[in-house]
From TrEMBL, chain A:
Entry EC number(s): 1.5.3.1
Keyword Oxidoreductase assigned: yes
Lineage: Bacteria, Pseudomonadati, Pseudomonadota, Gammaproteobacteria, Oceanospirillales
Domain of life: Bacteria
Pfam families named among the record's database cross-references: SoxD
Residue segments, region Disordered: 105-129
Gene: soxD
Enzyme class, spelled out: oxidoreductase
BP GO annotations: tetrahydrofolate metabolic process
GO molecular function, one term: sarcosine oxidase activity
Biased composition (Basic and acidic residues): 118-129
Protein name: Sarcosine oxidase subunit delta
Keywords: Oxidoreductase
UniProtKB/TrEMBL annotation, chain B:
InterPro entries, per the entry: SoxG, SoxG_het, TrmE/GcvT-like
One GO MF term attached to the UniProt entry: sarcosine oxidase activity
Protein name: Sarcosine oxidase subunit gamma
Ranges where the record places region Disordered: 1-20
Biased composition range(s): Basic and acidic residues: 1-17
Keywords: Oxidoreductase
Assigned EC number: 1.5.3.1
């Protein structure tokens, strides 16, 4: 169990109050009439599954029932930031690469896995795309 | 005036009304009674509950005009009037829970609709769907600590705060309107469960239930 910061309630809440709702920042095709089946398929069914930084939509389902975004490291489960709907993340896979190079990654008890350690740089690089 | 159809949900004749705790609390012949209770439990049945949704600025103007109270704009804030009988609680950035003495809610809803006019808002009477349990006594915080993962320490949970959170796996609204008193706004379908849970959790401190 861990605490997640709700950007609407402005405080940390227990994880059980939240639900994940998949990848964030999906854009519906702007011109549906002229969208190919493949593009529709990509929009509807295909999701990124990165190793490392991932932007996800979560909902504070027991609290304020608002959706918001989380930037999360899928390897360490570390939540790097939460931000309201309609905003862009300040931490991305690119900026996080710099963070790892500088050795800023914090080892949280129990959550750390092999690939997240700065010394295993090769593994981290493989992930970013 | 908005063109939404409204109706008085409270029957005008003397039909029998039952609170969600009718069977487990009100119709019991004897209620738990401890000689030196650490927790005093009671229900506040048949209050008027309204959910207001809309923009904070328009809603604030209407609420000030109709109720003479400011809408809590700060997250998780709870404001009460001087008598403590009418309260407004922040639920989300565009949602508030208003609790007024039973019978006042329909008139209040009409006045708010009048004041809000054609702006974009919604008012829903949820009085039939939930009820308020009041928790008093020196051990009430200990009981909450056993049941809720949210921090109920004085520093984190001062008077005038309310959160909706998980209480023994059920969703409740927990609020602290006064120094020595907590309120749980519970759903009708969970009322019996929450009540029994509280009785069980409070047993070790001594619990009295008052009607």
């Amino acid at each position: 169990m861990f605490y997640i910061f709700c950007p609407y309630c402005k405080e940390h809440r227990e994880e059980e109050e939240f639900h994940p709702r998949g990848q964030a920042h999906l854009m519906r095709p702007e011109d549906p009439e002229n969208t190919s089946d493949e593009e529709w398929g990509d929009y509807l069914f295909f999701r990124d599954n990165p190793r490392g930084i991932h932007h996800e939509m979560w909902v504070h389902s027991v609290g304020c029932r608002k959706f918001f975004n989380i930037t999360r490291n899928t390897v360490t489960y570390e939540i790097l930031e939460t931000y309201p709907m309609g905003e862009q993340p300040t931490i991305t896979a690119e900026s996080e690469g710099v963070r790892l190079e500088q050795g800023a990654q914090v080892a949280d008890g129990g959550w750390q896995t092999v690939g997240a350690r700065p010394e295993n740089k090769a593994l981290n690089e493989e992930a970013s795309s | 005036m908005s063109d939404v159809k409204e109706f008085e949900t409270r029957p005008a004749d003397d039909s029998k009304a039952e609170s969600p705790l009718a069977w487990s609390l009100h119709e019991q012949k004897s209620l738990p009674h401890a000689s030196n209770p650490g927790v005093i439990l009671s229900e506040k049945p048949f209050l008027g509950h309204l959910i207001l949704r809309g923009g904070a600025i328009v809603m604030d103007e209407a609420v000030r005009e109709v109720m003479g109270m400011a809408l809590p704009a700060r997250p998780l804030a709870l404001v009460s009037d001087d008598s403590g009988e009418r309260s407004i609680q922040w639920l989300s950035p565009d949602e508030w829970l208003v609790i007024v003495p039973g019978g006042e809610e329909f008139a209040l809803e009409q006045k708010l609709r009048q004041s809000l006019g054609q702006s974009h808002f919604s008012i829903v009477n949820v009085g039939g769907g939930q009820t308020v349990l009041s928790l008093k006594g020196k051990a009430s915080r200990d009981v909450l600590m056993k049941s809720i993962s949210y921090d109920v320490h004085e520093e984190v949970f001062p008077v005038g705060k309310g959160v909706s959170t998980v209480f023994a796996k059920a969703t409740v609204i927990l609020r602290r309107p006064e120094e020595d008193g907590w309120e749980l706004v519970i759903r009708r379908s969970f009322a019996d469960y929450c009540y029994r849970w509280l009785l069980d959790a409070a047993k070790e401190y001594g619990v009295s239930v008052t009607r």
